[in-house]
Amino acid sequence: MTGRMLKWSLELSEFEIHYENRRALKAQVLADFIVEMTNPSTPDKNKWRIFVD
Questions:
Q1: pLDDT band at residue 4 under the 50/70/90 scheme
Q2: Domain ranges for the chain
Q3: What DSSP assignment string belongs to the chain?
C-alpha cells in the first residue's frame, strides 16, 4: 500500500497537490469542535478560588 501512496503523491506533486495524512485532519476537527463548544465566559460562581500561604 505504501508504494501506491508514494506513486500517487509523486503524480499529484506535478500539479502542486500534496497528500495530507487523514489523522491530522481528524485531530483538527476535534480541536475545532472543542473551541466551538467551549463557553469562553464562565461565571465566577462556578470557579474555585484557592488561597495559599
A1: confident
A2: 1-29
A3: -HHHHHHHHHHHHTTT-----HHHHHHHHHHHHHHHHS-S---GGGS------
